[in-house]
Specification:
Oligomer: single chain
Low-confidence stretches: none
Number of strands: 0
Mean pLDDT: 79
Largest sheet: none
Number of helices: 3
Strand content: under 5%
Helix content: over 70%
């Protein structure tokens, strides 16, 4: 885990250095692109989450057979799914950021 944290810190430092090298317009463009990427990612995740909730709602009445309160079971399951979705979004954003950093570092090393 320490290796991952160290690698992450180094990647973030390298990425900040790359951003600082760009002019102001380049940084603004990068920020706009990332906002768009993140919004698309969140929108897709949210749509998928709503589909999952619909499936849960369609089968929640079976919880009565297990002598569980269907409303409580629905709340618990939806909260679990929402938490899972949030973690997945964070992981995907992290992967996208790491990929961009490594791609930029690779391109920069090719140029020099």
């Amino acid at each position: 885990m320490e290796e991952v944290n160290t690698w992450w810190d180094q990647s973030c430092d390298c990425f900040l250095e790359l951003i600082e090298k760009q002019d102001e317009k380049g940084v603004e463009l990068w920020i706009k692109q990332w906002k768009r990427k993140i919004l698309v990612l969140m929108d897709q995740a949210w749509q998928k989450h709503l589909d999952h909730l619909e499936h849960i709602k369609m089968g929640i009445h079976y919880q009565v057979w297990g002598q569980r309160d269907p409303i409580l079971a629905y709340e618990q399951e939806t909260w679990k799914r929402f938490t899972k979705m949030s973690v997945q979004i964070q992981e995907q954003i992290g992967r996208m950021l790491i990929k961009e950093v490594t791609d930029r570092l690779y391109l920069e090393s090719e140029i020099t």
